[in-house]
Amino acid sequence: MNISGNDNKRIEYTVRVLLCIAVVLVGRLFFLQIIDKSDLQAKNLSQVQVDRKLQSPRGTIYDRNGRPLAMSVVTKSLYADPKMIKQSPSEVAELIAPYVTMSKADIVKSLQEDTAFVWIDRMMEPEKSKAVAQLIEDKNVEGLNFVEESKRYYPNGNLAAQVLGFVGTDDKGLDGLEMVLDDELKGGIQKELVATDRKGNAIFGSVLSKYLPDKGKSVTLTIDASIQFIAERALDKAMEDTGAKHASVIVMDPKTGEILAMANRPTYDPNHYSQGSEEDFKNIAVTNLYEPGSTFKPIIASAALASGKWKLDQVYNDKGSFAANGHVMQNWNGEGYGPVRLIDHRSRYCGNTIANGPCFWRYS
Which end of the chain is more exposed for a tag (fewer CB within 10 A), N or C? Predict the structure, then answer.
């Protein structure tokens, strides 16, 4: 086969053009892959990743024996991007309303907002978040997704409720030690780059799983959970037997002053603090004022014994009242108990005075 000179020129020209194109393409690829690499990566990440501020879990509150009284668990919160919703707001509301705390009308209103982010339900129960996740997959709902958040959990229910207090949805202590020690217990804010799918939904996986509570943020109390439990059961029985409106008890180690138990009635469950009232939240053991009454007898008796002026078996003739410094002091019922030993004052409804013996008098 003979190839003319013109044909050779055309082939040579074509080859040169192809070589030039190849050089341009290689050069362009070199520029994009090597020189302009950082800018392209940034553009790509801006399309498939978003910044999220994550609250690391709150510190744990332990009793004196290391048993958790308050701890943090990871839960899922449902949010929506109204701009990504393809179905009508009413359709989406109809689907998810049975599983969230927000009403259908409020869901529709939220999904109609001109924004890219609205909360639908915070810190959902696991079974409900799983049900919504299944709905999203089955119905191909776009624009709905979850973010993991740390939720406060009280494993013993209402045990020591007024002492512990409770935490709001934004990890802020609102009552009790949770509020007083908020700065010590509160977790830190972590910034996390989160990958998104082609629909713009966050692919979170388990972002918070690597953020465990900081042991340095945890607190150990002098409270003994076992003693606290016994004290609270005793309070419940006292309330039932007497029909009282309020009751409180404090158990203290007399040698160190450490509080081993502090309980009140009425009470509430801090896991569901929204169902409690202001009266339930009040720690009346430390907020209310009481006359010391018979609780002061052991102190006076101890002082009398320590002074050497009284002995356990010494007898005092209780006449029911006496005059001191122009005041008449008497037993609570005005009656006398006759011969009374110091050791017997605990079983009588009389008290004790330093001046005249083992009965505690009141001014009339």
Answer: N
User: Per the residue annotation, which of 129, 294, 307, 347 is the catalytic one?
Assistant: 294
Residue spans of beta strands (DSSP E) within the chain: 49-55, 61-62, 68-80, 118-124, 144-153, 166-167, 173-175, 189-195, 219-220, 247-252, 259-265, 315-318, 321-324, 327-330, 338-341, 362-363
CATH number belonging to domain 52-220: 3.90.1310.10
Tell me the C-alpha distance between 151 and 172, whole Å.
11
3-class secondary structure, 222: coil
pTM beyond 0.90: the answer is no
Q: What is the pLDDT along the chain (364 residues), one digit of tens a residue?
A: 555 566 667 777 787 778 888 888 887 777 667 766 666 566 555 554 555 555 668 889 999 999 999 998 888 899 998 888 888 999 999 999 999 999 999 999 999 998 888 999 988 888 999 999 999 988 888 889 888 888 899 999 999 999 999 998 778 899 999 999 998 888 766 655 555 555 555 555 444 444 444 555 889 999 999 999 999 999 999 999 999 999 999 999 989 999 999 999 999 999 999 999 999 999 999 988 877 777 777 787 788 888 887 787 888 777 777 777 788 877 777 777 778 777 665 555 454 343 444 443 333 3
**Which contacts (CB < 8 Å, 24+ apart) does range 311-314 have?**
311/342, 312/341, 312/342, 312/343, 313/341, 313/342, 313/343, 314/341, 314/342
Which two three-digit tokens encode residue 53?
């501020």
CATH class in words for 225-287: alpha beta
Helices 89-96 and 104-111: crossing angle in degrees, nearest 10, is: 140
Peptide linkage before 298 cis (omega within 30 of 0): no
Domain ranges in the chain are 5-35, 52-220, 225-287, 293-363
